[in-house]
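Letters spell out the chain; backbone shape is given numerically. Both lines appear below:
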Amino acid sequence: MEKILAAQEFLKSKGIVNPQIGVILGTGLGNLFVKEIEDPLFVPYDVIPHFPVSTVETHHGKLIFGKINGVNVLAMQGRFAYYEGYTMQQVTFPVRVMKALGVQKLLISNAAGSLNPQWSKGEMMVIEDHINLLPDNPLRGPNLDEQGPRFPDMSAPYDATMNEHLMNIGEDLGINMRKGVYAAVLGPNLETRAEYRFLKKIGADAVGMSTVPEVIVANHCSIPCCAISVLTDDCNPEHLQPIDISEIIAIAGKADPLLTKLFTGLIQQLKD
């Protein structure tokens, strides 16, 4: 808690006061969303006490504070992943700082592989539930009683109302929205054919290397959250083709305008 409060006080001293909506922007995503933020205040991660520093070149590594549709928004342009070598507590530290600053809702995006052969690259999936296959848990160790209970409930980790808003906004915009289950794996390598078959058998619709730790901590500290996966590659084990990370980033970039419309529309709905 001392580290969380130190980061909180530093950010407040920089002018980040009363953020209402927190946003975590995933791989190849968020450039256009950031441009929607009015009067933005940029704070690099490396000046924030106890904050990790993003090591992935496509993750910009900045906190951005400002307004969208009259709502105070605090966005992470670049997240942290367990495969970078951080602890789960470091990966989720920004969510705990958001809680300390007063964030009331959390919006998350990621790039993910599609395990459903009926879906297409570039489509978006609203996450209804997840399967955690990561080798550690951000709640392991002494509990932060100031933020949440020792054994938090996870029967509905993704807020149903926000998910419904996202589906309705997508329909109004003519976006072919999907709903499904996200499986989180360690990475950073992509999966083998056998691993894709396994993930499909256990009920996953998409697979990625992030999001679940942040969702666990958001539920622990009672921040309602939602998450969207941009489906950037086809993971059909019977017709698997090699893919390069540059292709994944390019597909995510093409979906960025639609993701921006979904998130800005949701922020308007939450305001109303």
